[in-house]
Amino acid sequence: MNKRITRRDFLNGSALLITSLATGTLTACSDDTPTPQADAPKTSGGTPPPTAKTSSNYPPELTGLRGNHAGSYDVAHEMAWKKVQFDVSGESVSETVDLVVVGAGISGLASAYFYQKKFPSAKILVLDNHDDFGGHAKRNEFSESVDGKDIFRISYGGSESIDTPSDYSDEAMGLLNELGIDVQKFYTYYDQDYFKNLGMNKQGVFFNKATFGQSVVLSDEPNADNATELFAKAPLSDTDKTALIELYTTPKDYLGDMTPGEREDYLQSISYDKFLKDHVKLPQGAMAYMEELCLEYWGFNIDGLSAYNAFYEGYAGLELSGLEADDDGESEPYIFHFPDGNASIARLLVKKMIPAVVANPDHANGKSEMEAIVLDKFDYTKLDTPEQSVNIRLNATAVQVKNIETGDKKGVMIGYKKDGKLHRVDAHHCILACQHGMIPFIDNNLPQSQKDDHLQNIRVPMIYTKILVKDWQAFKKLGAWQFYAPKAPYCFIMIDYPVSMGGYHYPKDPSEPMVIHMARIAVPYGAGKDVREACKIGRSELYRANYHDLEKQALDQLREMYDVAGENLDDKILAITINRWGHGYSYERNVLFDKDDSAEKTPDSVKQAHGNIHMANSDADWMPYADGAIDQAWRAVQEIKTQVEKP
């Protein structure tokens, strides 16, 4: 097992999405993927939603459609879908630098940082196709007025938290330390008793009317102790209720006379979906509750999750399967979270390399670096100026990288497109810290076998929708702060994490404005022959939806929950940001579908340098975590250092 299944003891897994994802250029898709829609916001029933803020020199405060925002993917899709190839060899060289990094996500920024540390006098250019740096580590800000009082809230649009820092490599933890991040301080910043003191449970369940016939909320998550009481309230048939209660409360050995070795092999060969259908004989109505149980945590449904991994997640029905439980002691709590998620890591990296970017340095007096970054206001005009050694060029899509030789010196020619124009930069080295699905399209001379390996990383399509509301009394009435929502557009809904730090304060009680987080993983159950195929199908569906469709889905679902609580959502909404990511979780090896020798070799292949072109990003790790993104950046720079020092 590769998944860090010890990181939490509940179903929610926003971490993955996000713990981790650090990206730059958009990944390639199948040829028939439709052009993403991005029309203007419209009313979705009831009171019209607030008008999106779509113009600003400070991207974090933009609302409406964010994530892979309109225009960020156009050039990449030309290359991936229409097979358009760009050649800048005939263009004049606009700049010559030591290093070009493609992708300004955590991995790309860490690559620039590590390179600058090794070569202090180096000139570095970082390119990214978005209007903001950070990749999936996206900062969402909300500034509104409520009853004459100014309200400021921060949230995360992607990469969420520092997950299990005790597992970080020396290099990854060393980087956090150099940035001034002391993870132990989160034990003070994060109020672990906040919701318990309000009498709220950790997680409940929302059954939607369209699927289950009526809108019902359970204020707790079913387990062996409470399943009888909770499922009795669920909008299910008596047969389905009985089946689920038995599954949760009466452990059975469903594998007969299999030996321990046979059991392990067998459970790695079948999905949890197949186990529940073929061995437990769970009826279809009960399966509707179970099918998306792991969707937000793993990025796919239980038809893509091995029964073996389901056991280690603690899912029902496998208690007597004969596998040995992990005995790693108590895991770290899931509390290592900045208000803007891992965007603070990206911002600290930028601040370290370009100190002039901070527009309000006086606010930081008396604060540590990790505290000051929370309310640091960045001046984006300072990201790309001729006099500094590191420049970050946004809205610039890399279209070509090619090894070149000038006399006895080797280097790389880099082409990018910005504002409709092609530009050429020459560099001694290049690090591709972008999503690896784009690498075959920009490095045309890469060996075909390596191109094929890069294209194996099919990322998970997803949406993080953020809704700022005037208060969150509805959640207090419903009795939990997180909800699993089976068979609904958004499989997971929660209110933001209780973190106060650096002069930023979490709401004191349910009467104050709050950001609601809604996660939609667009990977359909029962679609495609494997997880990769399901991701492609889901991405196509996601791109067909316009902003109105996406907004309506979110508001209709949340409105239904509010109705159960006796609250009117339309009276509460202040702002909406929809972070649509066509390519979310990095793919990681799946025991159900990646069984041959080539699957073992692929992660090694995608790390291999191509001349003076080096590979970073969490995709090079085949694991969707921030520390993997950092580790691969460190490895790529070490490769360059070895090249440079070679006699």
Automatic annotation (TrEMBL):
<keyword id="KW-0732">Signal</keyword>
<dbReference type="GO" id="GO:0016491">
    <property type="term" value="F:oxidoreductase activity"/>
</dbReference>
<dbReference type="InterPro" id="IPR050703">
    <property type="entry name" value="Flavin_MAO"/>
</dbReference>
<protein>
    <submittedName>
        <fullName>Protoporphyrinogen oxidase</fullName>
    </submittedName>
</protein>
<dbReference type="InterPro" id="IPR036188">
    <property type="entry name" value="FAD/NAD-bd_sf"/>
</dbReference>
<dbReference type="Pfam" id="PF13450">
    <property type="entry name" value="NAD_binding_8"/>
</dbReference>
<feature type="signal peptide">
    <location>
        <begin position="1"/>
        <end position="28"/>
    </location>
</feature>
<feature type="region of interest" description="Disordered">
    <location>
        <begin position="28"/>
        <end position="62"/>
    </location>
</feature>
<dbReference type="InterPro" id="IPR006311">
    <property type="entry name" value="TAT_signal"/>
</dbReference>
